[in-house]
Design brief:
By secondary structure, the chain is α/β, with parallel strands linked by helices. About 45% of the residues lie in helices and about 20% in strands. The chain contains 14 helices and 13 strands. The strands form three sheets. It has a six-stranded mixed beta sheet, with helices on both faces. The relative contact order is 0.08.
Length: about 450
């Protein structure tokens, strides 16, 4: 195992508590362990502003140099993103591999990506991160104007490697755009299928994959369970399962990639088409780890990330249904405290605007299977808000369309007449056009 030393910073002028910086450093340690490292030490330094040259103070840099010289660690990881010059200067001072939080997360994603799209997106994010750091590795670019001293093997090596990376980035972007186009076509096809959708979103390691496995085992078709583990970013690639709802309808549930504090912008840009899948769902099940001491802060991170993905579109995060997971890890006293204060955790306008004192929080345990049925009822209630009600008359000679109508919406009332059946039907507004086509093709 690679020995790792962690460096965190608390910015005095930010106004954030020291505890938040300490918890972020603890999370960095879990990320390092996920990547295969062994944390042998860590420091948390309070600063007014980062040093332009070495990010941390000169004294701390010297202290870390002495530790690395004695072989105390092989890798030094910073909890904040380093500028290329800062990373280069630190590498020259400290005889160890110097990384930052962004590079660490990219490395974890590279290990976990399985689909072709995920692998391409990770490589694109890694190269976008590497390119500005090449100039610090080999020296800065100089303007090619000719003359004495402007040519040389070192400069030529830099130009060739940088050009190769830029060409590869361009190629990857074209491939990702092509996959994005295919994804949009598939998304449009799904819209033509009369099935509502729900996306499970949340902080990494909140239990999203475990929940989808439990839903599938209880109310879905028998399939091989998706990988789930008590690790950060255990799964990256989205997985969709058909789940039978209490009313008998089928809903598509999708497990999405987890979010995290200080999620690298390179990663958000590369995974944008995948992350946007969550906003396209009819309901967003925001899974919150109730056993996490900082679940309120992590819930805020998820909401902010979702808002950043809206990007001026008409998709709004007011479809978020907050759900608390891992109830089996809570004591009865903590459960009671959570239920008493959960209604005040989400304010109107935060995305979780539908939480009210009259609506007790949904608390479930995917391991024990408790609270699952209540979750499905809540999802159906959210779907019902997006429905319209209409009366449909189907003559007996066209009774073949009844099955499609039952799948398309929710039949509230059935009245048998002499020449046919009259239905009181509730369905999503987006499915109204599909209903018209069915009645036109199969009706009188």
């Amino acid at each position: 195992m690679e020995t790792v030393y962690l460096v965190g910073t608390h910015w005095k002028r930010s106004g954030s508590p020291l505890k938040a910086s300490s918890e972020s450093l603890e999370e960095l340690g879990r990320l390092a362990e996920t990547a295969g490292g062994t944390v042998v030490g860590k420091i948390l330094q309070s600063l007014d502003a980062p040093s332009p040259r070495t990010f941390i103070g000169k004294g701390k840099a010297e202290e870390l140099r002495r530790l690395a010289s004695r072989g105390a660690f092989r890798t030094l990881i910073f909890d904040d993103e380093l500028k290329p010059a800062q990373q280069k200067n630190l590498s020259e001072i400290i005889p160890a591999k110097v990384l930052d939080r962004t590079r660490l997360i990219l490395d974890i994603f590279a290990r976990r990506a399985r689909t072709r799209e995920g692998i391409l997106q990770i490589e694109l994010a890694q190269l976008s991160y590497l390119l500005p750091r090449m100039t610090e590795r080999y020296g800065r670019f100089e303007q090619q104007v000719g003359g004495i001293g402007t040519r040389g093997p070192g400069e030529r090596k830099l130009e060739v490697e940088a050009r190769h990376i830029r060409d590869r980035v361009t190629h990857l972007r074209r491939q990702v755009d092509s996959i994005k186009l295919h994804r949009e076509v598939a998304r449009e096809r799904r819209r033509n299928v009369p099935l509502p959708s729900a996306a499970i979103v949340g902080y990494t390691n909140a239990g999203k994959s475990t929940l989808l496995n439990k839903l599938t085992s209880l109310y879905g078709q028998t399939r091989e369970p998706i990988y789930a583990d008590d690790r950060l970013f255990a799964t990256l690639d989205p997985t969709t399962r058909r789940i039978r709802m209490p009313s008998g309808r089928v809903c598509l549930f999708t497990d999405t990639v987890g979010f995290i504090n200080k999620l690298p912008h390179h990663l958000i840009a590369a995974f944008r088409s995948t992350l946007e899948e969550s906003l396209d769902a009819d309901v967003l099940v925001h899974l919150i780890d109730a056993a996490d001491p900082d679940f309120t802060g992590h819930a805020g991170t998820v909401r902010e990330t979702l808002k950043s993905l809206e990007d001026g579109t008409d998709r709004k995060t007011d479809r978020i249904l907050p759900v608390f997971s891992k109830a089996d890890l809570l004591s009865p006293a903590r459960k009671a405290r959570l239920e008493s204060r959960a209604a005040g955790l989400f304010q109107a306008g935060d995305g979780d605007a539908d939480v009210s004192p009259d609506a007790p929080p949904i608390l479930l345990s995917a391991v024990e299977g408790t609270g699952i049925h209540r979750l499905l009822e809540a999802v159906e209630e959210r779907l019902a808000r997006r429905m319209i009600e209409t009366d449909v008359f189907i003559p007996f000679r066209h009774s073949g369309v009844l099955d499609a109508l039952y799948r398309l919406g929710r039949v509230e009332q059935v009245s048998h007449r002499r020449r046919g059946v009259k239905l009181r039907l509730r369905l999503e507004k987006s499915h109204w056009g599909k209903l018209q086509k069915i009645l036109h093709n199969g009706g009188p």
